[in-house]
## 1
Amino acid sequence: MAGPRTKQFNKPKDMKKTFIRLASYLKPHRWILLIIGIALIIAAVATVLGSYMLKPILNEAVRLFTEGSSDFTAFFKLVATLAAIYIVGAGCNYLGQRLLLNVSTSTLLRIRKEMFGHLQRLPLQYFDKRTHGEIMSRFTNDTDTLREMMSQALPNVLTSGLTIIGVLAFMIAMSWQLTLVVLGAFAVMLLVVTKLGKRSVKFFRKRQTALAGTNGFAEEYIEGQREIKLFNREKKAVSDYEKLAEELRTSSTSATTYSMILMPIMGNMNYILYALVAVLGTAMMIHGGEMGIMDVGTLGAFLQYSRQFAQPITQVSQQVNVILNALAGAERIFALLDEPEEVDEGKVTLKKKDGGSWVWVCDGEEIPLRGDVRFFDVTFSYDGTTEVLKNVSLYARPGEKIAFVGSTGAGKTTITNLINRFYDVQKGRITYDGIDVKDIKKDDLRRSLSMVLQDTHLFTGTVKDNIRYGKLDATDEEIVAACKLANADFFIRHLPQGYDTVLTADGANLSQGQRQLLAIARAAVADPPVLILDEATSSIDTRTEALIEKGMDRLMKGRTVFVIAHRLSTVRNSNAIMVLEHGEIIERGDHEDLLKQEGKYYQLYMGMFELS
């Protein structure tokens, strides 16, 4: 059940190690970072000095007023100095932020490139064990938290920290008595914020849970509208949704109430503190001899500092959570980058000769590529415990069509996964033209194979580009020939722009059968000696299936073909049919032989049992 995307707080397991590793990505920018640091320090100092300049400006204004002087030269100089300080501070802040933006985007670009490049080198089992959403979260949520930390949190912590130190130092220098008052009032504010914050967080969590439940319910029931209407369950759906919506309303009201009263309380307490400092400061001016030295300028500057004091502390506390969250995200990114890459110890390579034929190059010897595949007592387990294949032996001579039939989980797809070395066998061996597949480089091995899966994936781009994915240097003529071979040319030419029609959203503007035909054409243009069809026609209607059977027959000529199919009509013309059950081959032979045996295949073909 899907829910909304919410920002969760996470804490890194090893903060120091993660931070050091993240800092290594910033090493190429160390001189720019030095400039950024200096610029942000100057900006923070300018903020503190700007407030301090109120003291001489106010005192000069009081002097002019009390003396009735018309000489404003000193006053204008002080105002000009204040303006210059703020201009320099603003300029340095802009420079620091602009350079930091360049550094953060460059660093994230490097991290994203490393992640995506590393992802391409990971074994297929990594993707089998994780959801796409989990992997995508590394590229979206985790990198986004890093961007926020580098471009906002870290500079804010630096400038806010310097501002706090500077403001506190000037406040103590001006009046340690009033500084104690400010610190005491701030301690009370923190206590109030902590109490209200705990209550608010509890209700916000309830709200997020209720929101996730409401959205998930709505998504599920929108997708299930056909079933709802079929069984007349509209009223029940509305009733169930109203209960979830009411829970969301209650928790949202409570959460919003606490968050709304927090700011007015803090604002009013700030006003009270401001008034208290003003009253006490005024008293100190009147009774200067008894309570210390205080003048109008000092009081004005101190009041400004008292307003500035709370803001940077609040910013630091907020940014600390952002930094911890970002380091947790970086930890997950580094965990991805530390995943072991696909191991390839093969040395045998594939080479195309001048005549167009392909040969295996093994220790200088050239072996013709024919497509002879054999299994010798192969045993395999995905998890090291449960055996998916048990002592499987079979052979496929060049040009033969071998079919695998059996229930879900019988091991049919596993056999094809082992042929192209998505996984390696634990026991036994597989040979390709007499060469152990473990000795063949994976890139070269997979170049000699084409595979059409049950779930077709089409990339964003034109029809032509999607077919050319099987052979990047394929000419337009080769693409058209491959489509004719797969009987896809007819429907392609009736698309709005023909072969130049742009496909988006995984080919959502095509029918499932049309998408499957494109996948078959993509395999055909690669012109491989070995072809693997894993439920390739399961999503195609019988009429479309009849159309492609002729094309498939032409495509399979001279090739070794492995077919996995639930529809037994698609495997009748196979040279050999293997019936698998619980990882073992229980029957083998061609269609006529297996019918004569009257075993499992006979029962399936006659409809006495169904494949699950």
## 2
Amino acid sequence: MSEHIDLILKTLPNKPGVYQHLDKDGKVIYVGKAKNLKKRVSQYFYKEQSNNRTRVLVRKIADIETIIVEDEFEALLLENNLIKKFQPRYNVMLKDDKTYPWICIKNEHFPRIIYTRNVVKDGSEYFGPYGSPRIAKIILDLFREIYTLRTCKYDLSPEKIAEGRYKVCLEYHLGNCLGPCEALQSADDYMQMISNAREILRGNFAEARRYLVAKMNEYASKLEFEQAQKMKERLTALESYQSKSTVVHPSITNVDVYSVISDESYAYVNFFNLVNGAIIRSHTTEIKKKLDEPEAEILEEAVIELRERFPSVAKEIYLPFELDLKIPGVKITVPLIGDKKRIVELSERNAKYYRIEKLKQTKIVDPDRHTNRIMAQMKSDLRMPVEPRHIEGFDNSNIQGTNPVAACVVFKNGKPSKNDYRKFNIKSVEGPNDFASMEEVVYRRYKRVLDEGEDLPQLIVIDGGKGQLSSALKSIDRLGLRGKVSILGIAEKLEEIYFPGDSLPLYLDKSSETLKVLQQVRNESHRFGLNHHRNRRSKSGFNSELEKIPGIGAKTTEELLREFRSIQRIKTASLTELSAIVGMSRAQKILSYFSSNQEE
């Protein structure tokens, strides 16, 4: 396995999608679907293959490309399209030209709703495709129960109806049809039923759900449990059914789709090519920013370059936002709703996951670039004059004012520098006062830094909101450090970030790397401070109990704890064991004290 393949495997997402194996010439030799791309693709290389054909395939894989989709159903559909497009040598479905089922609302007077496997461009509406014929047929059965739609193939034009060419059939007498062939049902009334059915196919199931629940309850009240169970099965099928696919839709033909996401240093542009409603090509490219180019400018250049690299005859382009771009003979659209909007969102998701994979790969092969990118992003997000290469975080810890302590943790280049951690026992504050404690510890920390000529951090992170930040600022001002170092507070509940002089907090995206670094600093200061507090409180507990014994002082207590390690061991020690450490007189006092307390 090559280093390139190994790197791809380490950074694949745990998401559903389609993978394409490419040979050394860039030709697609296999297309597969996966519920979890990372697990499925890794099996080719980390698991021993018993099939000789698979072993040959693995030896020929030089590159892997993936397309992220919403779920396994969409992956199934996309796999089918790509296999038909590329005809990969190693796909067993190569000769299977089977197509998936659709539900069609025919383009005719008094439209029929039918099941089909063939999409014909005759103006009819097609919904699907469906991964299983059973689901499509359940929906059609549902329509027949909810609505009285015709099943005959007559041409019910107004002229032929007026001429009286047709007579009602058995379906009318059974109550399954209202007789539009004899003008017993108006076109408006019929089209309202078609409109309702169309809404169900588009995902609005409210009316159908109410109908099925009512029927189920009606059958159950009549003790017709078999019929009630059928209604329940149809309700379950309806709720699990997906009426649309953002991967394939026949209304989207001959279209290119572009999207872009970016950070401080790089932009990532995804490109989809759709022909006859199917994705036949997906490509994502990484673009290095030279200056602080806006996404609109990057996307404009990328559209032109990608259309040249992958010659396109598409007459329409979908974009996530407006561009000052005009291409002769090409319509540029920014979809706002529906299937077109969803296909743009799918493109954006693929750009996002491509970026995540690239960042993981960079972290492995080029950690310095990874660090530089995060530092640049933090500088931008936190509006700092310099990159926060040196960060210090503070947290207080006390329980009802007992043993108050504080901790200072240090991060350099985004990573903990544990040798530089500092812990403080609060000296000037009585009782539980977090604000005063924070003021004391910040002052002590940076007074010493200034006195000893050490380097100041670029960023100070205070665990807490406005109150803790204001207290820390008092010390910063006393030391004359305002403007020389950046400082912020991060409140844990909503991850609000407060800056000096700004009453409104900053909210970063939960997936933001800047927020993750700040959270790590905050959590590490909390952990380090809590450990220090726990140790001090524990030691204090030992001391207070032992020092109650007349004639036993701090030095004797320290000797006993060093030898026995815990108060419980001291209580159960024999006179001989104790006297060997503190002498016979003190040993007898200790034994007498604990034995009398035990009797009480």
## 3
Amino acid sequence: MAKNTVIQKILEKHIVSGNPVPGEPVAIRIDQTLTQDATGTMAYLELEAMNIDRVKTELSVSYVDHNMMQNGPENRNDHLYLQSVAAAKGVVFSRPGNGICHQVHLERFGVPGKTLLGSDSHTPTNGGIGMMAIGAGGLDVALAMAGQPFRMAYPKIIGVKLTGRLSDWVSAKDVILEMLRILTTKGNVGCMVEYYGEGVATLTVPQRATITNMGAELGVTCSVFPSDEMTKEFLEKQGRGGSWTELKADNPEYDKDIEIDLSKLRPLAACPSSPDNIKTIAELAGTEVGQVIIGSCTNSSFRDLTIVGAMLKGRKISPNVTLSIAPGSRQVLEMLARNGTLADIISAGARILESGCGPCIGQGQSPANDTVTLRTFNRNFPGRTGTKGDQNYLVSPEVAAAAALTGKITDPAALGFAYPQVKDAEKFLIDDSMLIRPPCCGKNIEIIRKKTIGSPPVNQAMPETIKGTVVIRTGDKTSTDDIMPAGVHLKHRSNIPEYAKVVFERFNEDGKPTFAQRAAAVRDAGRHGIIVGRDSYGQGSSREHAAICPMYLGVKAVIAYAIERIHAANLINFGIVPFTFVNKEDYELLPEGTEIVIENLPEKLAKRAFPIIAKANGREIPLTSKLSDEDIRILLAGGRLNLK
């Protein structure tokens, strides 16, 4: 068992109940929360349903960064609701255009040693500043705002020793891509990652944040760097030096050890269509590229975009490529504008997008058919760009800029000019005018609720017997984007009956009933929907709609080889049982349309009578689940909102 780690130091100060042994359930106090508009609207509706007058955290921030495109009234309706409910409940509101939640939080609010719970899976970005920052579903974040602790399994801790220094043209993005090559996207549930070693001191906070950001793709709960002199320098430049505290490990031991020599890394790419499909740029060199986008919460810091600007200065992008830049925060965008870098980027032929998530979630900038797109983003799940059959590669800003100039995947060292010697900002531009602080009392605040704002649907208590029908059977790595597509549909996130129409849309076949139609037919016939999957079911976004909408359609259970942490918690919160196969070969016995019966389920769960036997086609299929006592209590009630 790990000892003397930074992660354990933070946990020791925040555990309120439970046994600090890997795999055992614990509950931790949450200091700060963040939400974003795609998941936050439902989170605040859930908070209202709890009749909470004022948030109980040290700090809660509501960001608008996902649904910036106002094509129809829905998104702006949500923004008005979020701004008014934030004022009423004591939450800081970050206006549209202020930037992506993770980057702005790192810049303006992150505090070493504190806990942060966010309704976005990339909340671990703030581990780069020495926080224990964890992504969760909106309901879990609402509970934290209500003063409830966050429940999780006590982690195994993976120690990553960094040695050496990054070479020219090699980026922090290449560090996390190497981690994905080593650990892959699956098999890391219940783990946290801690970085240490002399190589840490060579990385700035934004570089560290790039690494912790894509820790989400590893499937770990969070990733944490120590808080050291580099952290102190960053906070001082942000005018927040008083928030700094040193946080380091003392002769640590880890449950698993990895060592990466930064000096030996070379530029890498995650190839279509998984973040762990890693190849070197040397292997991919010469591949024709049609689109390049630089930005997202992973790679749009001042340093990242200053390097890109220096590479583009005095040059023009390839006529066969479109290049778009999305700065991660208004702070970065304005600093680039003031020092001339933005002019260099525009002069090269780039298009400037809003400081938001945009194309990362398929909100615009979808590539053409049969076209390679290079993005400095964190996910390349199939169709996430908004184009079916997309060819999406994840790369560093340096590799992206090189491709924009040449029209091909190119090792930037082969461009024929020296690596730009850019300087980090001596001081960051401080302007918090787009952060709206709440009044001291919110009782008289009118919460604006337009007609497109619905209510969280409430499930019924668990039935005595599940009389189920398999509505869909999926393969490995079914993501929450597969379950609940974002893109043009995300504007319906506050209207569950409407959004539920596109559950599993990517799997629908022309001329055949959709998943939503099949599930509704099963529900209306008095039966229960069952979803069957394989490995890493529910990977990706924290989008709790991937549980809410199937619940609305009558789904009562998911059966898979393995279910990812955040999605499993969301299923439980909305009364859907997350089962795993005892025998993986039983997956073949459950094609779509199979009828399944699980008798006396409440009694069996209450008694922890695992394995629980499901009967299908005359066969007995043993199922199990890693459920805490509180999980079972929630499931029996039919979901967390049914509990008082």
## 4
Amino acid sequence: MALDGISIHALVDEFNTILLGGRINKISQPEKEELLITINTASGNKRLLISANASLPFIYITEDNKPSPLTAPGFCMLLRKHIGAARITEISQLSNERVIVFTLSHLNELGDVAYKKLYIEIMGKHSNIIFCDEDNRILDSIKHVPSSVSSVREVLPGRDYFVPAQEGKIDPFSVDEGYFKNNVLKKPSSISKALLSSLQGISPVLANEICFRSNIDSDVACASLFDEHKDKLYHAFVITLDDIKNKRYRYNIVINPTTDEPVEYAPITLTMYEDSIIKEYDSMSIVLNQYFAKKNQYTNIRQKSQDLRKIISTHIERCSKKLDLQNKQLLDTEKKEKYRLYGELLHTFGYQASSNDKSITVLNYYDNSELTIPLDPELSASENAKKYFEKYSKLKRTKEALDTYVTQSQNELALLESIEAALNIAESEQDLNDIRAELSDYGFIKKVQTNKKQKSAKSKPMHFIDDNGYDIYVGKNNYQNDELTFKIATGNDWWFHSKKMPGSHVVVKSNNTELPDSTYEYAASLAAYYSNGRDNDKVEIDYLQKKNVKKPAGSAAGFVVYYTNYSMMATPSLKHVRLVDDKSC
């Protein structure tokens, strides 16, 4: 979700507690639309990270530093000139809008106290950081918005600053029962849309949460509500806002239990996510730091993997087409036995044919049925027989060659699909480098020259520990799968893999003991999660002791065979396991 007015409200309270009265001692612009401001406060230096990026705008206090460009951009230089040593005298929110105002005092060229304002607008694609003088005249902004882009408001130096009025919307903290029931719930729309269109800073998530707490469907039309429903909705609305108004915050992130990805965040508990994991934190900044760091990780990896994804999908498409063509050609070679039979029968009964006959009907002595054989009237019976034997020989040679080619294409397709599965679970730059190296080794992309340091870098399989204390290892690519199965695992360890589906090798170190039933289930859930069936409700998992897993000679990395195994259905999940960061094996 984007930062809504309620989250901004919690942030402003936090900033007033930590940053108010602090003095700015450093301003940098690490990214094109991002500011990092270091503030000297009573509790030490604090870093305020602000992003006006259209796809991921945010503002929060962070402990992380970011490298600055060698040459500071013009907007950053202007801020350094005017407020490089300014003191923060006020931090406020405009109504319940997604706008934070920092009022800053500094000494001007004459040594007199002057004031400037820094407006942080967290409004999706309209997000901006705008620097104004004390009369609210724009001095500059991190993003310029001319009239050709917006006819509602220009954001350019010299223009007056204002926030476009949102018609029909009022501050939710000023809403009483009469207005809520007679205005908000009188709109010709669903309840959630009525809340969104009537109240400032209310996000779809918060609107749905209010409806959930009332036990009323958010898509229900306002016109269908009875008085008792309106009472419930108003009661839930008051309780929700009362927690914010009285600073009873519960900073939390909602985690998808299957994918471990952050779903939502809020300064209040989102009770509608009953089946999700709720992680609580000490401040809104920590929530945003964790949430956006995770989101950035997934977003960046997806962006950086686009070239690899395109290469793999192109090769899979080509290989699939090649395999289809080879299978069709293989199907055609099934006619070879018919041509061989024609040749044999013509050798035996060809004397019955007359010149210029276009066919001959003879007895098929293999099944005692009559068989009509087409003939070329320009050729004799023996010449027709020779022609059929030549067709038979050609198709026989073709089939022998195609059997080899089909096997090669099937192995190539399986390899590409396994690399694609590894790309789907990639979580870091190193994972992408491993996949790039594998594609290079098998000739799908050009070999990239690397220095010795890069060559020596080698990633390890993921290491988990389950609730029973057993070590479980998961390979993230084919090379890791090979290492895990044939170097790390020992004979009595248990090996898991998704059935007839690309996925990771998963090994449970048994330590020569009998595993609890639950550990089998946890390992199977991991194998399902790190497979192409991650989005399925259930995935069939094969499992057996590692000593029964074999690698055919000359086979590609990650390719194994086994003939005796057990199977179980598992739900893709990371529950009951925790990742060990040391990556030791």
